Amino acid sequence: MAADEPSSAEQQAVAAAALTMATTELEYRVQLLNSMVGTCHERCVARPYKEGTLSVGENSCLDRCCAKYWQVVAIVGQLLGAQNK
Amino acid sequence: MSSADEERVASSASASTSESGVQNPSAAATSPTKKKKEWHPITMPTQQELAAQEFMNNCLVKSAISGAMGGLAGFAFGLFSASMENAHGGLDTVPELGPEKTTRVILREMFQNMKTKSVSYAKGFALMGALYSFNECVIEKWRAKHDKANPALAGCVTGAMMAHSAGPTAMCWGCASFAAFSTAIEYWMES
């Protein structure tokens, strides 16, 4: 009985920490998605909007934009991780 | 006048809260000429829609569709042109010597001429349409931009390709003329 209580408190603390980390991670991911969508839409889709569907050129521009954005995120993340060490 | 305005305000207020696509009968009664705009909710595209868009974005598919439509247009144009040619007789044509042809023979000749001409025009238009569409798709994919330079570039390449057997000067002329034509068509389609 005495051994159960601190372990349950530990478990609770660990669970709370994991929840906070997961919440922060989710928030970062949502921010990443929003900024990627905003940047690539601003760069690739020309204004004024002449039609309601994406043309072939805009489609390929969005493909390239998202791929490059993702690469930049990966590289910068790696550099940050290396710097923190 | 004020009662009609009140009815219009009431109908628009109820339309904003009701389901989309439900027409208000009082609005139709008061203003039959005005068509109420139906607002649809914004939805994310489904997998099927995305797959259909991806299918249409393929350059070969676009070129095949344009080639088919060009073939149809060429067929119609060939029929028209052959019928204009078949209307012989008059002061310009040289009279044919020999026994007079029966109606049946003349009709068969006309039909043959129509068939030949329409097939040849259909082939030419189909090739032109398919080639132009393929070039425009490839150029637009490579540039990753949707602007007015794409039809001009694609027209130039198509015109040069179609005149390749006539030498470099003809290729330059073909490029310039087809680029101008396709730019003009693009401006006309936009308006």
UniProtKB/TrEMBL annotation, chain A:
<keyword id="KW-0999">Mitochondrion inner membrane</keyword>
<comment type="similarity">
    <text>Belongs to the small Tim family.</text>
</comment>
<keyword id="KW-0811">Translocation</keyword>
<keyword id="KW-0496">Mitochondrion</keyword>
<keyword id="KW-0472">Membrane</keyword>
<keyword id="KW-0143">Chaperone</keyword>
<keyword id="KW-1015">Disulfide bond</keyword>
<dbReference type="GO" id="GO:0045039">
    <property type="term" value="P:protein insertion into mitochondrial inner membrane"/>
</dbReference>
<dbReference type="GO" id="GO:0046872">
    <property type="term" value="F:metal ion binding"/>
</dbReference>
<dbReference type="GO" id="GO:0005743">
    <property type="term" value="C:mitochondrial inner membrane"/>
</dbReference>
<comment type="function">
    <text>Mitochondrial intermembrane chaperone that participates in the import and insertion of some multi-pass transmembrane proteins into the mitochondrial inner membrane. Also required for the transfer of beta-barrel precursors from the TOM complex to the sorting and assembly machinery (SAM complex) of the outer membrane. Acts as a chaperone-like protein that protects the hydrophobic precursors from aggregation and guide them through the mitochondrial intermembrane space.</text>
</comment>
<protein>
    <recommendedName>
        <fullName>Mitochondrial import inner membrane translocase subunit</fullName>
    </recommendedName>
</protein>
<dbReference type="GO" id="GO:0015031">
    <property type="term" value="P:protein transport"/>
</dbReference>
<keyword id="KW-0653">Protein transport</keyword>
<keyword id="KW-0479">Metal-binding</keyword>
<dbReference type="Pfam" id="PF02953">
    <property type="entry name" value="zf-Tim10_DDP"/>
</dbReference>
<keyword id="KW-0813">Transport</keyword>
<comment type="subunit">
    <text>Heterohexamer.</text>
</comment>
<dbReference type="InterPro" id="IPR035427">
    <property type="entry name" value="Tim10-like_dom_sf"/>
</dbReference>
<keyword id="KW-0862">Zinc</keyword>
<dbReference type="InterPro" id="IPR004217">
    <property type="entry name" value="Tim10-like"/>
</dbReference>
<feature type="domain" description="Tim10-like">
    <location>
        <begin position="21"/>
        <end position="79"/>
    </location>
</feature>
From TrEMBL, chain B:
<dbReference type="InterPro" id="IPR039175">
    <property type="entry name" value="TIM22"/>
</dbReference>
<keyword id="KW-0496">Mitochondrion</keyword>
<keyword id="KW-0812">Transmembrane</keyword>
<dbReference type="GO" id="GO:0030943">
    <property type="term" value="F:mitochondrion targeting sequence binding"/>
</dbReference>
<keyword id="KW-1133">Transmembrane helix</keyword>
<comment type="similarity">
    <text>Belongs to the Tim17/Tim22/Tim23 family.</text>
</comment>
<feature type="compositionally biased region" description="Low complexity">
    <location>
        <begin position="10"/>
        <end position="32"/>
    </location>
</feature>
<dbReference type="GO" id="GO:0042721">
    <property type="term" value="C:TIM22 mitochondrial import inner membrane insertion complex"/>
</dbReference>
<keyword id="KW-0472">Membrane</keyword>
<feature type="region of interest" description="Disordered">
    <location>
        <begin position="1"/>
        <end position="40"/>
    </location>
</feature>
<keyword id="KW-0999">Mitochondrion inner membrane</keyword>
<dbReference type="GO" id="GO:0008320">
    <property type="term" value="F:protein transmembrane transporter activity"/>
</dbReference>
<dbReference type="GO" id="GO:0045039">
    <property type="term" value="P:protein insertion into mitochondrial inner membrane"/>
</dbReference>
<dbReference type="Pfam" id="PF02466">
    <property type="entry name" value="Tim17"/>
</dbReference>
<protein>
    <recommendedName>
        <fullName>Mitochondrial import inner membrane translocase subunit TIM22</fullName>
    </recommendedName>
</protein>
